[in-house]
Amino acid sequence: MANYLFLIRHGASEWNELGLWTGWTDVGLTPKGFEEARTAGKKLRGVKLDRAHVSPLKRAKQTLVEAVSAAGQPDVPVQVSGALLERDYGRFTAKNKWQVKEEIGSEAFEKLRRGWDVHVPEGETLKMVHERVAPYFDHFILPELREGKNVVIAAHGNTLRALIKHLEHVPDGEIHKVEIGTGEMVAYEMKNNRLLRRNVV
C-alpha cells in the first residue's frame, strides 16, 4: 500500500506582500496566507497524517497549524528543525526585490534569486540550503516514509526547492525552473520503497 510525502510552502507572509526578501526574519502570515494554508490542508482530508516536520519560523508554523487543523488532524506529532529554515539572504534581507532587480538587471537578479551556487554577502546560496536540507531528509524523514507513514513538511520556497532537487535529482543548471507558490502543496507517492515523481495538488 502506498504512503505519501506532502510539501507545503507557507502561505503569503507580511513581507511577501511588501516584496521584501525575508530569509530568517520571523514574520507572520497575512489573512491571505492563513487562507492559503487552510486551502492546502483541506486537500489532505481523508489522508491519515502520521508525522509533520516544520521550520522554526512563525510563518511555517502558522501554516502547519492551519493546514493540519483544516485536514481535521490538529494533533499530528510535529518535529521542528532549523535544517528547514529558509535561505539566509544576508545583506539582501529586508531589501525590496524589485528595486534590487532594477539596480542589478534582470539576468543577475534571476541568478541571485533562483540560481544554484550564487553568492549572497553574509548569506547562503541554494547549494548551502541543500547541504542542510538533504541530510535532514535522509536521516529523519526518509526512514518514516519507509515505515509506511504519511509525512507533511511545512517550510519555505527555497527550502522546498532544495529538497525537490534532492528528491528528483534536478541538475544544477535546471533548478531555476523549480518554483513553488505560497500555500502550494506538492505530493510524492512512496511505492515499492521509491518516491514517485511529484504532483502539485
Task: Compute the CA-based radius of gyration.
Answer: 16 Å
Low-confidence stretches: none
Distance between the termini: 20 Å
Amount of helix: 25-40%
The named CATH superfamily: Phosphoglycerate mutase-like
- Count the beta strands: 6
Oligomer description: single chain
Under CATH, the topology can be stated as Rossmann fold
Structural class designation: alpha/beta
The number of helical elements comes to 7
Beta-strand content estimate: 15-25%
Could you say which overall geometry the principal axes of the C-alpha atoms support?
Answer: globular
The CATH class assignment is Alpha Beta
Read across the widest sheet, the strand sequence of neighbours is 3-2-4-1-5-6
Largest sheet: 6 strands, mixed
The total tally of domains equals 1
What is the H/E order? Answer: EHHEHEHHHEHEE
Query: Quick check: average pLDDT?
Result: 95
Q: Per CATH, which architecture?
A: 3-Layer(aba) Sandwich
